[in-house]
Amino acid sequence: MRYDDFATEHLDPILPERVIRYIPSAMGSHERTIVILTGAGISAESGLPTFRDKDGLWEGYRVEEVACPQAFRRNPDLVHRFYNLRRAALKTVAPNAAHQALARLQREFPGRVILITQNIDDLHERAGSPEVIHMHGELRKVFCAHCGHCGVWEGDLQTVTSCPQCDRRGGMRPDIVWFGEIPYHMERIEAVLRNADIFASIGTSGQVYPAAGFVSLAKIAGARTLEINNAQTLVSGRFDGQFIGPATREVPQWVEEVLGGNE
Length: 263
Hints:
Order of helices and strands: EEHHHHHHEHEEEEHEHEEH
CATH superfamily of the largest domain: TPP-binding domain
Structural class: alpha/beta
CATH topology of the largest domain: Rossmann fold
Number of strands: 10
CATH architecture of the largest domain: 3-Layer(aba) Sandwich
Distance between the termini: 26 Å
Largest sheet: 7 strands, mixed
CATH class of the largest domain: Alpha Beta
Number of helices: 10
Strand order of the largest sheet: 1-10-9-8-2-3-4
Radius of gyration: 19 Å
Strand content: 15-25%
Shape: elongated
């Protein structure tokens, strides 16, 4: 389903005629920048559970049991078991058509395409995206609370696991931003949002801040905004346009329209 709230004179190929009207011609004096935010919905179509579906992670474990620093101090074995399962599950899935389309957009768009994700998986990278900003960390990385070492980790993690840098035990944890912690790369993200010509949010719930506020930051800076989701969200009304449907259908179609309009 497509929603059109705007006149269609002087159409912009980046946001197609069914969605958004022309972006002022003054934008032609500089390199266009598309900033994209992706959330759990895009990876759910690869078979990964989301945090907010009835069959998702919240039902299996309460958030306070697995996804906050207090839980790690109280029951690190439970937290490690939970993320070990998630790390193992990641090996069983592959990037889908939406991931692949965004990688294509990054490679072929004549301007800049900056990809920010709330997801902790590596499906964007495996699809070929040359650069991804992981604001919530990465499942295949670990962090030592003792010395600050951060590195790639493919196997299970346990309380007795020694840090490869300082050799101390008890401090190794998934390099993931837990509730109550500050997301990574926020200064860089705010800077790219201030310079965005287009901001697109794909597969996000609109419930988790600060990411849910990115659309407002982008609009204040003058960007046109687009939401692609399988349903309306709490922040849908803030966007200039919306595509409703599965990411594997809507994202490749949007990318095709963007690239086709810039040939």
